[in-house]
Structure formats: structure tokens, C-alpha cells
Write a structure and sequence with these properties.
InterPro entries: 2Me_IsoCit_deHydtase_PrpD, MmgE/PrpD_sf, MmgE/PrpD_sf_1, MmgE/PrpD_sf_2, MmgE_PrpD, MmgE_PrpD_C, MmgE_PrpD_N
Pathway: Organic acid metabolism; propanoate degradation
EC number: 4.2.1.79
CATH architecture of the largest domain: Orthogonal Bundle
Mean pLDDT: 94
Radius of gyration: 22 Å
Number of strands: 8
Order of helices and strands: HHHEEHEEHHHHHHHHEHHHHHEHEEHHHH
Number of helices: 22
Distance between the termini: 61 Å
Strand order of the largest sheet: 6-5-7-8
Shape: globular
Catalytic activity: (2S,3S)-2-methylcitrate = 2-methyl-cis-aconitate + H2O
Strand content: 5-15%
Protein name: 2-methylcitrate dehydratase
Number of domains: 2
Structural class: alpha+beta
Largest sheet: 4 strands, mixed
Low-confidence stretches: none
CATH superfamily of the largest domain: 2-methylcitrate dehydratase PrpD
CATH class of the largest domain: Mainly Alpha
């Protein structure tokens, strides 16, 4: 009889190889997700810190390498290309999110998908269409997201990028032409690799690694996929073996489970970001912006600011005291709220040292009280709601206060998808500045509006369009 852990691996293998028709809703969201991720990538490569993580990989652009890296003039072999793509799109914490017992960003897997698709197209002379890219994105999202529903890694101090590595390994193996045996090899070895710690995501040492950890996982996944195709053996007992298996070694015996059948649930319900900030703060930004005009006029008279939030926000982004770098600031709920109140916007530049030097920011932070609202926590974990609520109320020295501004579902939530569709084109257009000429920007924006054309383009054609020409 097959053990439960082995069944999990076999279900993932079968799902990756299945040709089951995916829903139009999932494909539509995958299209939004591709372009949203691309915009995040373009913004990421403009960051000097991001480029520092990419440039050690390459001496100069070379035609001998098979994979283009969108947003740059660089080419690389698939492993480094996978790292570079995922690193850039993840850098600003602006790409999509998935919130459950475990948290994560399923579009992190796009580096593996684009790198392996380009490699296969060039090597096999087989056209890989935009439609195929979307289908693989749906599958990677589903694997990572469904694993995240009931399997909490953070509870054990471990990072969510384990599930990025698992999803990318499974999908990359399939893209490269692997069958069940090869996918099982890459998939099981991705669990054998174990898990990195979350230390780089939390005070007092929040650091840059949180922006490249997923890219590192993606690169490793592509390596596991390649050696699987060379005949590397599998370890199908990695989720069931007592003592030496992943559950006993890393989760204190808690079993890894799939909480629902693998289909297209995650892509249909994925969360997008309207602001470059950790997702648990997105609705707090909206609440702060709504109160800004009233608060700004009485800035010096503020007595305290109450932030009512969900438990995960308190665990992840509630911080007091000094913040050491941009990576620390974009994961601080109080800093983000202060930025929204003071400046009326939150951008990737909001976390830089010159902005953080404004003494008003820390002055407001010292007046903030962050409180868990248990009804918010309950709504957060409710699979029918998947809410990410925050509320803000500002109290003044004269005894007056603002109304308590509550936002239950942030702008990128599935319940507000229509609103996000109106925001995304602006996000894309803004991301193209400083990278592309006016003509190239026009071509890219036209392609975004011509979905049917995108679906039939080859991955090489798509990536070639995304090479800067300034």
C-alpha cells in the first residue's frame, strides 16, 4: 500500500503530466500574472542592489548562451537565467502573493519556466507558445499554492521557498521533456534538499537574501531537473521515511499533505499587488491613503495611531526600533503606513535611505499601536474569504479622532479583480521607463492589449521583444 507521503509526490507528478483542460478564468488570470511579473522584473533590474546580484553571473552578453533575460541585454545558460529572472521579478516585493498556513509568491517560479522553455525551444527547434507558458505558470502556481494551504513551514522557522523549489523542479522537468520517472527524481530531490531558515526575513537582521532566496530555489530546481533527465535516481520515500524523511527531519513529524485536488484553484484566486510592499500591508496602505488629507493637516497634533490587523501581519511585518536597510523597511507595517500618510504614495523608492532619513517617519512610528483583531485573523484564514484586512484610526491631542478606516479586501484581491485590471496597464507602462525606447514601449504595450497574438508568439519572440534598446 502506498504511503501518504509517496501519494503526495505521485499526485504532483500526475498533475504536471496531465493534459486536463484549464479554465478560462485561470488562463485569464495567468495572462495578468505574466504581465504583472514582467513589470516587476523591469522595475527590479533598475535597482542597483538587484544588479549587484546579477552581474557576478555574467561577463558579457554572448550568443553562445541560449536564454535571454528580459529587461537586460544579458544571455545565460538556463540555471543562471532562471536565477536572474526570478531574482529581478521578486526584488521589490511587488509580484503576486499567496496567503495561507504558508505564505509565498507563486510567480517566483517564472524564472524556471522562461529559462527552460527558451532552452528547449532552441535545442529541440520546437516552438513553445505564449499559451504553453501560461499553462505551466498555472501548474507551478497550483503546486506551490496547494502545498501552502495546510503545510506551515514558518511555524518551524523555515522559509516558504522550499515550495518554490518543489514547484519549479516539477514543472521544469516537464518542460525539458521529462516523464514521470524524471519528474519524481527532481521532485523528491527538491525535498531532500531540506529547507533554509527564515532568519533573513525578520528583525533584527532582515536582509537582502529575502529578495533572492526564491531565485536561489528556482536555480536549484532547474539543476535538479537537468540531472533528473540524465538519469539521477529518485527518493520517493522522502515524505514518508521515519527519522530521515523531510517531515521528521524538518517538521517535527508533521506530515506534508495536499489539502485539495490539483487543478487551477491557485491561479484563479492569486493576489496581486497595487503597491510595492509586503502583501499583509496592502489594505493598510489603502486605509492610510484614505485618511491622509485629514491627518496631514493635524500632523503635529497626533497622539497615537492605531493599526488593527491580522495575526500574520503581526508575526511578519510588525516592527519597532531602527530599520537597517530597504529590505527591512518594506517588511515593516508601521514604516509603510507612515510613508502612505506622509507622502500619499508608496513606491519602490520609498524604502531608500534618503527617504528613510525624514525624521517625521520614525516620529509617526513611535506613535503607532499595532493590535491583532481576531475577526480579521479569522477572515484571513477563511478559505471562502481569503481576506487580508487592516484598519487605521488616528487620535489627536485634543481628544478628537478620525473615523476608523477599514479595508477588508485589498485592491489586488480576486473580489476586486476588475479594479486591478485597470491598474495593471499603468504598472506596466511605468515599468518600461528608462529601459525601452518610445517605439519599443509602444510595441510592448500593444502586445499586452493583443492577447491572442501573445498566445501564439514563441517564447524566443517574446523574450526578444523584452530586451532593452536604449
Amino acid at each position: 500500500m502506498e504511503k501518504e507521503g509517496e501519494q503526495v509526490l505521485h499526485e504532483i507528478c500526475s498533475y504536471v503530466l496531465s493534459n486536463k483542460e484549464l479554465s478560462q478564468d485561470a488562463l485569464d488570470n495567468a495572462y495578468l500574472c505574466f504581465w504583472d511579473s514582467l513589470a516587476c522584473l523591469f522595475l527590479g533590474v533598475k535597482s542597483e542592489e538587484c544588479r549587484l546580484r546579477l552581474t557576478p553571473l555574467f561577463d558579457e552578453p554572448s550568443e553562445k548562451f541560449s536564454c535571454l533575460i528580459p529587461g537586460t541585454t544579458l544571455r545565460a545558460h538556463p540555471l543562471d537565467a532562471a536565477f536572474a529572472i526570478s531574482c529581478a521579478l521578486r526584488w521589490l516585493d511587488y509580484n503576486d502573493a499567496w496567503l495561507a498556513q504558508e505564505w509565498g509568491h507563486p510567480s517566483d517560479n517564472l524564472g524556471a519556466i522562461l529559462a527552460c522553455a527558451q532552452y528547449r525551444e532552441k535545442r529541440e527547434k520546437e516552438k513553445i507558445s505564449g499559451l504553453r507558458i501560461l499553462e505551466w505558470m498555472i501548474k507551478a502556481h497550483e503546486i506551490q499554492g496547494v502545498l501552502s494551504l495546510k503545510n506551515s513551514l514558518n511555524r518551524f522557522g523555515l522559509d516558504h521557498v522550499v515550495f518554490v523549489r518543489v514547484a519549479s523542479a516539477a514543472v521544469a522537468s516537464a518542460i525539458l521533456g521529462g516523464g514521470e520517472q524524471e519528474i519524481m527524481s527532481a521532485l523528491s530531490n527538491s525535498f531532500v534538499d531540506g529547507a533554509p531558515l527564515r532568519i533573513y526575513r525578520h528583525a533584527p537582521v532582515t536582509g537582502w537574501r529575502k529578495s533572492w532566496a526564491a531565485a536561489d530555489a528556482v536555480r536549484r530546481a532547474v539543476w535538479l531537473a537537468f540531472i533528473a533527465l540524465r538519469g539521477e535516481m529518485a527518493y520517493p520515500n522522502v515524505l514518508s521515511q521515519p527519522q530521515w524523511g523531510f517531515p521528521d527531519a524538518f517538521l517535527r513529524g508533521t506530515q506534508v499533505v495536499l489539502d485539495r485536488p490539483l487543478s487551477d484553484y491557485v491561479m484563479k484566486n492569486v493576489l496581486f499587488k497595487a503597491y510595492p510592499a509586503e502583501y499583509h500591508s496592502q489594505s493598510a496602505i489603502e486605509a492610510a491613503l484614505a485618511l491622509r488629507d485629514e491627518v496631514l493637516a493635524k500632523l503635529e497634533k497626533i497622539q497615537r495611531i492605531e493599526i488593527h490587523t491580522q495575526l500574520p501581519a503581526i508575526r511578519i511585518i510588525h516592527k519597532q526600533g531602527p530599520l537597517s536597510n530597504p529590505a527591512d523597511r518594506d517588511h515593516c507595517l508601521e514604516y509603510i503606513v507612515a510613508i502612505a500618510l506622509l507622502f500619499g504614495q508608496v513606491t519602490q523608492g520609498s524604502y531608500e535611505n534618503d527617504v528613510a532619513a525624514d525624521p517625521r517617519i520614525d516620529n509617526l512610528r513611535r506613535k503607532m499601536v499595532t493590535i491583532e483583531d481576531k475577526t480579521y485573523t479569522s477572515a484571513y484564514y477563511d478559505p471562502e474569504k481569503m481576506a487580508v484586512p487592516n484598519a487605521i484610526q488616528v487620535f489627536f491631542e485634543d481628544g478628537s479622532s478620525t473615523d476608523k478606516k477599514e479595508v477588508i479586501f485589498p485592491l489586488g484581491h480576486p473580489r476586486r479583480r476588475t479594479e486591478f485590471r485597470n491598474v495593471l496597464p499603468k504598472k506596466i507602462e511605468y515599468s518600461l521607463d528608462e529601459l525601452f525606447s518610445a517605439d519599443k514601449k509602444k510595441q510592448i504595450l500593444e502586445l499586452f492589449s493583443e492577447k491572442e497574438k501573445f498566445l501564439t508568439q514563441s517564447v524566443t519572440q517574446l523574450c526578444s521583444l523584452f530586451v532593452p534598446n536604449l
